[in-house]
Design goal:
With 380 residues, the protein is an all-alpha fold. 71% of the residues lie in helices and 0% in strands.
């Protein structure tokens, strides 16, 4: 808290938000949630894993309405388990593919656990105790189970296809189409699943689940933004998700962006990547405008406003190539408190879009394309 205050010391609105958030009263839903955890050790363990594995979603998940909250928590944990298998470069490819393709069946196997991850895999503990997640999953309503299993099947097979292709060709993401497909598998399908869960809960209409295109865009906007921000972390870990079709226009090797002599090329490529993400914004705003339940709206809006703030932060920012940069905690808390209705969300998006426009330089080869994309956002 002290560091957050120091970081925002020249931003009075952020300081006010930090203190308001710190001393805010718990909502009735949050109180009921805590009471249910006090009575149920198994469920509490799942939420402990949620807090352990999620940097950004744990808090917003726990603010959802009662019936939906547990389903989304377990949806997240199941997919986190799947992702932990996919991320682990120490697993033999055949074993990894086998697990990815069968994970939708594994989640129905009581007492199943997994301890084959490498010792340094950050979320291996979740899989070591995955029987707890399975037990809680099996307590969900069949409608929720079906949604989670279906998305797990689609995602697991997509990840398996990607892992096999990457192994054969010794490359990560070649084209923009490949980039979109990868982000669809790891995040767009999450958008599908969440929309299906919202509809299955009765908190949102069936219509929200039918428009798969904008559900996909919700996931792509978050995933692509994170991939841009995480350049350095992924490079150091031997992963590469930026599409060669974009970065290959500027340098020969993906690591060349870290070299001082390539600063200008690095900036142009970074902004080219941001341009790709901006195209998702109109769909994001359309999706949010269709939501009816307050807790669902907050849950969906908060990550999206964080993403547009992050996108504005990384635009033209060469620090991306040296370290993992993040928006200030005070700024994040201010966004959380503001993201309660569509008018506020539109104002937030416009603020950060104008920030990108302000930093868009005429010498940038993508200047006109970025300007046109900004224009489409502002009239959407």
């Amino acid at each position: 808290m002290l560091q957050a205050i120091l970081d925002s010391v020249t931003k009075p609105s952020e300081l006010a938000a930090l203190f308001q958030y710190k001393f805010a009263h718990k909502s009735p839903s949050a109180i009921r949630h805590q009471q249910s955890l006090d009575r149920d050790a198994s469920k509490k363990r799942c939420y402990d894993f949620l807090n352990m594995t999620s940097r950004s979603f744990a808090a917003v998940i726990q603010e959802l309405d009662d019936d939906l909250r547990d389903a989304v928590c377990l949806f997240y944990l199941v997919l986190r388990g799947l992702d932990t298998i996919e991320d682990d470069m120490t697993l033999p490819l055949d074993r990894k593919v086998e697990l990815l393709r069968s994970f939708d069946q594994i989640i129905y196997q009581k007492d199943w656990t997994f301890n084959e991850n490498g010792p340094d895999e950050k979320d291996r503990e979740l899989l070591v105790h995955f029987d707890v997640v399975i037990n809680e999953f099996l307590r969900l309503k069949p409608e929720f189970q079906q949604v989670i299993a279906n998305i797990t099947r689609l995602m697991g097979n997509g990840m398996a296809d990607y892992a096999s292709g990457k192994h054969r060709e010794n490359t990560a993401v070649a084209t923009v189409a490949d980039f979109d497909l990868y982000c669809h598998y790891v995040a767009g399908l999450v958008g599908y699943g969440l929309s299906d869960l919202f509809a299955a809960s009765g908190l949102e209409s069936e219509e929200i689940a039918k428009d798969k295109h904008i559900s996909n865009s919700m996931g792509l906007f978050l995933q692509k933004t994170n991939i841009i921000r995480d350049y350095r972390e992924d490079l150091d870990d031997g992963r590469q998700f930026w599409p060669h079709e974009i970065w290959g226009k500027y340098v020969d090797k993906f690591s060349d962006f870290t070299k001082p002599e390539n600063k200008l090329k690095a900036k142009y490529c970074l902004n080219d990547m941001v341009l790709n993400v901006l195209n998702q914004v109109p769909d994001v705003l359309t999706y949010l405008s269709r939501l009816q339940n307050q807790s669902v709206f907050n849950f969906c809006a908060i990550p999206q406003v964080m993403a547009i703030a992050t996108l504005a932060l990384v635009f033209n920012n060469l620090e991306v190539y040296q370290r993992n940069i993040k928006i200030r905690k005070g700024e994040a808390v201010k966004l959380i408190l503001q993201s309660t209705n569509m008018d506020n969300v539109i104002s937030i998006f416009r603020h950060y879009i104008f920030e990108i426009a302000r930093k868009n330089e005429a010498v940038n080869p993508n200047f006109m394309d970025i300007s046109m994309s900004i224009g489409r956002v502002c009239v959407s």
